[in-house]
Write a structure and sequence with these properties.
By secondary structure, the chain is of the alpha/beta class. The structure holds 5-amino-5-deoxy-1-O-phosphono-D-mannitol. 5-amino-5-deoxy-1-O-phosphono-D-mannitol binds next to α7 and α14.
């Protein structure tokens, strides 16, 4: 978590630093700060809360210079106060840091013993003092001191480093946390994410783990972990400079929800037409006996839907795991097995660590990411892209349905490769997928319905989401959406599990949102809904017109989804869940794109 930017351009850096931070604010918004070297002295400005506060501070107390570093924070060690905000400084060195220094307590003790004074509660503050220690020992240049010092850090870091008295260069280093280098005309940049560099340049490279870089105006020297001078491939980034534009929407989340029909149409047409998810892009499904899917949050729920699909349409045994649980339990993995990692950002620390573990156990690594240049993509044997475009809202929406679309293609490939799907079956599934974007469009039009229901959810303290089969992961996703942006407690429950405990929660103040597409499990879900009704629970039914019309129970409200093939139901039934959460959060006046305590990309454990 946290975002860092560094700029050297020989003239004025503050606008580029602030522009970069704006595009990184999705990574954390607890506090922000920057430091700039002017006339060989480092000057810093820091504020609590969102970046807007730093902007105000700079308007009152401006600084300018030819080289600088900046930071937007998601607090890990130490509360989100000005003192704990980055940059952190010693007398000679100033640093911004993304990651966690695991051995900071031991380092801090040693440094305090040597007389270095600390002011913050952060792990990051050890870095400038440690570099100072190496500089104070005499023989080392500032760059060499920094290169030696970072080797003593355990844990994860992306660092930007300025030195008192030096305005001709700054340094950067990475281990675990991502860091991109941007190449401008007579300017060099670093940032946690290439998107933050898009307004400045489209030429980027990525530091490898353990790399250390010295950036001067128009040049960068990169040293690998053995201190050998190395080249990292410079690529043309495809990220658009206006990727972070809300257009006419009030929030990124709403814009991203409404982008879904077009994105899905693009994915379906490109892939079903040109067979883009070609064999060489993925594992040989005919060869594997099982597949393990690993992810976090919403990406995990997309994987959960895919488990049902792979089992049903490809007769493939699939195990799913939450990355943070999988990574530490030394799970035995089959010889010649395959693991699929799903991540919008491609940077989630838990998912990446699980990937490294699976790789060390000889698994074929397939990843499904939305960011082609991400750490997870670069570490994988095979990569399938979700092609959803940049997702800025912290609550994931379009990435989820784009993941489902890519997974659906993989499932069809797997079903064919394993001899489960006939040509006629394939035509049936692809035919359903082709109809899906237009049906999605219809669902998004019912704004009044969502707004009305949101009004009735506005004051509620707790809500339950229920579903069966592939609608069970949707119930989990619906609950996650509601809690993360509206702060209403919510739980997703397999409808059949209700009677094993959760039904005790039902009362007149606990709405139950039932995800109930027609199909072979519908009757069972409907009887679970009646059990809720019998206990006085208000019901919000999401189903097709026929099911809603013949429902023999009372509902608080219902949302109509067009009739559809089972296979595409998850794409369509998740849309009302996204919109209900959005409008409930709006009615409660919550910060929808930047919910409290969260960040978009979770690059720490
Ligand atoms: O970038 P990733 O897909 O790996 O992120 C995983 C989760 O952190 C993410 O889906 C999170 O749960 C979202 N806030 C959900 O809306």
């Amino acid at each position: 978590m946290c975002g860092i930017v560094g700029v050297i351009n020989g003239s004025k850096v503050v606008d580029d630093l602030m522009g970069g931070l704006e595009l990184l604010e999705y990574r954390g918004y607890d506090s922000a700060g920057l430091a700039i070297v002017k006339d060989k002295h480092v000057y810093a400005r820091k504020t609590e809360g969102a970046l807007a506060n730093l902007k105000k501070e700079l308007a009152i107390n401006p600084i300018e210079g030819r080289v600088g570093i900046a930071h937007t924070r998601w607090a890990t060690h130490g509360e989100p106060t000005v003192v704990n905000a980055h940059p952190h400084s010693s007398q000679k060195v100033t640093v911004v840091h993304n990651g966690i220094i695991e051995n900071y307590e031991m380092l801090r003790e040693d440094l305090e013993y040597e007389g270095y004074e600390f002011v913050s509660d952060t792990d990051s503050e050890v870095v400038p003092h440690l570099i100072s220690l190496f500089m104070d020992s005499g023989a080392l240049s500032p760059e060499a001191a920094a290169m030696s010092a970072v080797k003593m850090l355990d844990g994860a870091y992306a660092l930007g480093i300025l030195f008192e008295g030096e305005e001709e260069f700054f340094c950067a280093a990475r281990k675990g946390s991502p860091l991109a280098i941007g190449y401008g005309d007579e300017a060099m940049y670093v940032a946690s994410d290439a998107m933050a560099l898009a307004p400045m340049t489209d030429r980027v490279s990525y530091l490898a783990d353990g790399d250390f870089a010295v950036l001067s105006q128009g040049n960068v020297e990169i040293y690998d972990v053995d201190e050998h001078l190395v080249q990292r491939e410079v690529r043309k980034s495809s990220i658009k400079a206006n990727a972070a534009d809300k257009g006419h929407y009030a929030h990124f989340m709403l814009k991203e929800i409404h982008e879904q029909p077009d994105i899905l149409l693009d994915i379906v047409e490109t892939n079903l037409g040109a067979q883009k998810i070609a064999k060489e892009k993925t594992v040989d499904f005919a060869e594997i006996s099982s597949l393990r899917i690993i992810a976090c949050g919403t990406s995990f729920y997309a994987g959960h839907v895919a488990k049902y699909w792979f089992e049903r349409y490809a007769n493939l045994n699939v195990e799913i795991d939450i990355a943070s649980e999988f990574r530490y339990r030394n799970a035995p993995l089959p010889e010649n097995g395959a693991a699929l990692f799903i991540s919008q950002s491609g940077e989630t620390a838990d998912t990446f660590a699980a990937l490294e573990y699976a790789k060390s156990k000889g698994q074929k690594i397939l990843s499904l990411v939305n960011v082609p240049e991400s750490t997870i993509a670069r570490a994988s044997d095979y990569v399938v892209l979700t092609e959803a475009g940049s997702e800025i809202g912290v609550a994931s929406t379009k990435a989820f349905t784009a993941q489902l679309a890519a997974l659906a293609m993989l499932v069809i490939e797997a079903g064919k490769a394993r001899g489960v799907l006939s040509a006629a079956d394939e035509r049936e599934l692809t035919g359903a997928l082709k109809l899906m974007p237009a049906k999605a469009q219809e669902i998004l039009k019912q704004t009044d319905v969502y707004q009305d229901i949101a009004q009735s959810l506005k004051e509620t303290h707790s809500a339950l989401f229920i579903g069966r089969g592939a609608s069970y992961p949707l119930a989990l996703e619906g609950a996650l959406k509601l809690k993360e942006i509206s702060y209403i407690h919510a739980e997703g429950i397999g409808a059949g599990e209700l009677k094993h405990g959760p039904i005790a929660l039902i009362d007149k103040d606990t709405p139950v949102i039932a995800v109930a597409p027609p199909g072979e499990l519908a009757e069972k879900t409907l009887s679970n809904i009646k059990e809720v009704q019998a206990r006085g629970g208000p019901i919000i039914l999401i189903s097709d017109a026929k099911t809603i019309a013949k429902a023999d129970f009372e509902t608080l409200a219902s949302v109509e989804v067009p009739e559809c093939h089972d296979f595409i139901a998850p794409f369509l039934y998740v849309l009302p869940l996204q919109l209900l959460s959005y409008y409930a959060a709006l009615a409660r006046d919550c910060n929808i794109d930047k919910p409290r305590n969260l960040a978009k990309s979770v690059t720490v454990e």
